Predict the structure.
Amino acid sequence: MQRRAAAIYFVFFLVVGAGAYAYIGVAEQTHQPQFELDGTTIESEGAGAIGGAQYNLSEITHTEGGGHGGGGALVSELSWTNESYRYTGAISNNSTTTIENDSYRVVVPNESGVSQFTLQAEQNVTAILRDDPAVEDSVATQNGTSYVVYRDNDTLRPLSEYLPEPGTIEFAEGDTIPFESDDGTVEATIYNVTSSEVQVEWIAPQENTVELSEGQNVTLANGQQYFAHYEHGGDSVQVVPADQYGQYATTNDEQHSFQQRLNGLWIVVIVSGTAAVMILSSAYLPIRG
């Protein structure tokens, strides 16, 4: 009698567990919410066009672990080149700049509405004195003034009067000038002159990179915002315009709710299977006399 009752309960729990398991399979195939987004799909380490610009995608990886079996979130980098990026820089008044290996001091007139400036050649005083046999090779200083000393009679002449007029180069807004940028010397255009600095600009390529993570917004070359959605098991990413984020968030919530219901069914499967095994095992335990 005990074993007959155990068999009935065993069958009951087995049927409940099997039914829940079968429903899980059907639900995953037919009822699971799917993302229906209109974006550009790019394969891992592939390329694609978005908004008229070409982009390259790095390898899709996990933030923790490695490979598609690792844990953590999926991430990748999207890169592109802006071929006509506008760079800007500034040359301070009274600073020193180099043109064709010669040093010049920047001299901007101290007046309002200024639009031009002068580059004044830096003079190598030591070299000038050494090249002139009539004077000593070094200057003498008296009361804070530097003097040139003539060899014949030790006559002193103020250095400022002795030196020749330095060479100058005139520049104005709209002219081009060599400018030392972070990437080397470039030909920059002078677009604004103030009493304190000379502002320049130049056009050159710029490399850009953004990180793509699930659901996070990024701004691309066209100035528009997009977000990333990884699909196909993490083998590709869909770059979607930001105006579809509401639809994405709704589907994401529906998938989360759906998964919670599936988790509840899995609990039924596990509990039913465990109960069936325990009941069947208990029925065949030896009875002590």
